[in-house]
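Recap for those who missed Tuesday's class. We walked through two folding examples back to back. For each one, the amino acid string is listed first and its predicted structure tokens come directly after. Nothing is annotated here on purpose, so try labeling regions yourself before you check the end of the notes.
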Amino acid sequence: MSADERKLRQRQSAEQESATELNQGNQQAQGLEFGTVDDLLRYDSEQNLPPLEVAQRLERSLEAEPHREHRPWYKKLFGG
């Protein structure tokens, strides 16, 4: 097992423990209301972790992406 896989497993287990603590502290899952869709998605992602294989593929894919320099919209439009 490589160091990256070990780190990923540790992170997932820590996230799972925090999600379990959140579930135990908040038993009213059906009565939750969210102010925005983003809040709903954040809550849902804390409750449902992706399978290890999917998480590993995602990590590799993100590492392979070239880093793009952020340019303000006006520089893209007008050049510079």
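Example two. Treat it independently of the first, because the proteins are unrelated.
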Amino acid sequence: MYYFCTYFDSYYLPKALCLLDSLNLHCPSFTLYMLCLDEASERKIKEANYGNVKVVSLKELETAYPQLSELKNSRSKIEYYYTCGPAYIRYVLDMDKSIDLITYLDADMYFYDDPTPLYQALTGHSIGVIGTHLPEFRKSRVWQGTYNVGWLNFRRDAEGIKCLEWWRDRCLEWCYERYEDGKYADQLYLDKWPELFEGFYEFTHRGANAGPWNIGDYKISKRDDKIFLDNYPLLFYHFHGLKKISPSIYYTSLFKTLKPMPPILKQMYIDYIKQLKTHSPEQDPTASIRKYRAKYHLLKTAYKIIVGIIFGQYIIIK
């Protein structure tokens, strides 16, 4: 039995449901804890009554951690969500004392194969993380860090709990969506873990948590109905930055690769978008609370449009 946890609001609900769909397809036995960050998402998950899902409400978490409510008005909504993350993971371990190993998942990930190889690799370790594996031309962007928050393991032992509680306390102290003194949101804290905690393990499996930031560095292929990155089976993909920009056009955020989209990858995006739409008949399936600085957003949007057109990085679904 594997124990996963994720969090989302009503905007990210379609992505969380796709994540659940993919786990049901590829994970033999699991429980998924879902932190619903607003009443609308909580209501819909409870109404669905999924057999392998346990619902946690934001009110429940804030009752367990009164500090969270005190911080709510001093941080943007997305910064507040990031702040809640580590406290939520610790809360799940408090809820169920039988959990030996908890795995946090970003809601916008999708599984393509059984994650068991990662659990086998983690044997004897307390903390598991996946590197961003950035291409060389992007490694100068210090705010992105060495590791990605998308998949995190914490074992219920001295080092695993010590690391999780340290991360929780740091995010309660400071968690903002800006780079400052070696910190950025909840993510750059992970860079300190190898030197602070024993039992740290960085996964080397290339098929784990691939995303728009590194997929261009891999040779993508398909054999026996399985997708491979180099010679590694694709375990799960992180559909970060996917955005609907018109009634039938979706932007993939692959501008980071500066390469044309391989047909296999394009089909992955098409299938994922279609599945998102089944879970969001009345809303934009890629909606988000994220806010952008106007000037920066305009410049970035212009760059995305130019690169996206040159390399064919848009998906059209009517």
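Answers for example two:
The longest helix spans residues 77-95.
Residues 248 and 317 are 5 Å apart (CA to CA).
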